[in-house]
Amino acid sequence: MGDPRYLELTGERTLPDVPEENYWFRRHEAAYRLAARAVPRGARIVDAGCGEGYGTALLARRGKAAGLDLDGATVAHAAARYGPRFARADLCRPPLRRGSVDAVLALQVLEHLVCPQAFLATCRDALRPGGVLVLSTPNRLTFPAGLNPSHVYEYDPAELRGLLGSLFAETTVFGIAHGPRLRALDRALGEPVPRRLVRSSYRELRPWIRAALRAIRARDFRSTAEPEGALDLVALCPLR
Questions:
Q1: Order of strands across the sheet with 232-238?
Q2: Spatial separation of the C-alpha atoms in residues 232 and 137, rounded to whole Å
Q3: How many CA atoms does the CB half-sphere of 39 hold within 13 Å?
């Protein structure tokens, strides 16, 4: 599997500490920080599709967090960097016992799955009463078409509500959008940041744009109650 300290940037998952990836990484980090607010302290948490492991490490500040990912090299990296709280698992058959956890998070995961219904049903069954499923996924209405070939299907807000509503009695969908600093950068570029990143490689960008991208932090994104125009969709599904 190679050196577990390093992961290759393939586009299937984002990584910290990579300058050309910083916009996407901070956007994912913002989703984790928003999602963590829905998780009670001391909770037993599963981070399904944990990727590099940075999000599971963040969630471990809230409770007992475990990360699951299909890729063995990714799991080895996460365990080497963040500690032994990671396991390899197929999310079409996640190893979650009924009523065993307080929260399941699946951030930027649903769009990669060929088995969304089965995955979500297992997540619901794994929750204890009062538990919550939190997921995020790119908004098809604003996500550049064809940007990520590892995506099986990208959802719009109505489709996401329909999918989750078939399994959960209560679902709240909101969005993640650019905050003031990123909106200012959109204006300076004359187009949204992600559209520019699709059109131009990082090396082709002017130095001032690269510097602005490297300076982005999770706090430069905000939540919005209007998901139709959001960058990413976030759903909270409590189990009553």
A1: 86-88, 63-69, 43-48, 101-107, 127-138, 232-238, 172-178, 221-224
A2: 6
A3: 31
CA distance 167 to 89: 22
> What is the pTM for the complete model shown?
0.94
**pLDDT tens digit string along 183-198?**
999 999 999 999 999 9
The two three-digit tokens of residue 163, written as one number: 């999918």
- Average pLDDT for 122-135: 97
Q: What is the crossing angle of helices 180-189 and 207-214, to 10°?
A: 160
Task: Return the pLDDT at 200.
Answer: 93
The span from the CA of 78 to the CA of 217, in Å, is 22
Count Cβ atoms within 10 A of the Cβ of residue 152 and give its class: 0-12 exposed, 13-18 middle, 19 or more buried.
Answer: exposed
CB-based contacts of 80, cutoff 8 Å, min separation 6: 4, 5
From 97, 99, 73, select the one nearest 86 (Cα to Cα).
Answer: 73
Q: What is the DSSP string of 64-113?
A: EEEEEES-HHHHHHHHHHH-S-EEE--TTS----TT-EEEEEEET-GGG-
